[in-house]
Design brief:
Structural class: alpha+beta
CATH topology of the largest domain: 2,3-Dihydroxybiphenyl 1,2-Dioxygenase, domain 1
Strand content: 25-35%
Number of domains: 2
Distance between the termini: 17 Å
Strand order of the largest sheet: 5-9-8-6-7
Number of helices: 2
Oligomer: single chain
Radius of gyration: 16 Å
CATH architecture of the largest domain: Roll
Length: 147
């Protein structure tokens, strides 16, 4: 099978400049800011990522804030949480899944703090952009085989 790489995710936002300020504050690298007739595309790349996000005007019909469950991976969830707080990002306290599985949107089975065994893929924090697009920050110390 040919290689396919995730390149860009389009995030619907209501105010491009407000979203641009947020992702700049978050530490994402601004790659482009292109303006055309009735259209604007701003591309940001998270630090160390091969994939980017687009925010803009006239690039999607999705409702602002409707994208949920975007995942950012970090080596140390506690350090990442502190860095986000230090940047002024409103972020949830670190939590883990009581079943040792992936984050659940309902949060019915989440527990406070890092995973007691500090297993990869098991500790999280979360935040939203100004429109409510939801991000999960996940600690991965060791990737699964083949990753």
């Amino acid at each position: 099978m040919m290689n396919m790489k995730l390149e860009v995710i389009i995030l619907p936002v209501s105010d491009v400049d407000r979203a641009k300020d947020f992702y700049t504050k978050l530490g994402f690298r601004e790659d482009i800011d292109l303006k055309g007739e009735g259209t604007r595309v701003v591309q940001f790349t998270p630090p160390g990522s091969g994939a980017s996000i687009f925010i803009g005007k006239g690039i999607t019909t999705a409702t602002p804030g409707s994208v949920q469950g975007l995942v950012l991976v970090v080596d140390d969830i506690e350090a990442a949480h502190k860095e986000l707080v230090d940047k002024g990002i409103e972020v949830e306290k670190v939590f883990h899944d009581s079943n040792g599985l992936f984050f659940h949107a309902t949060k019915k089975i989440t527990m406070p703090g890092v995973d007691p065994e500090r297993k990869s893929y098991s500790s999280f924090t979360a935040f939203t952009d100004p429109d409510g697009n939801g991000w999960i920050v996940q600690e991965v110390k060791e990737r699964l085989p083949g990753r």
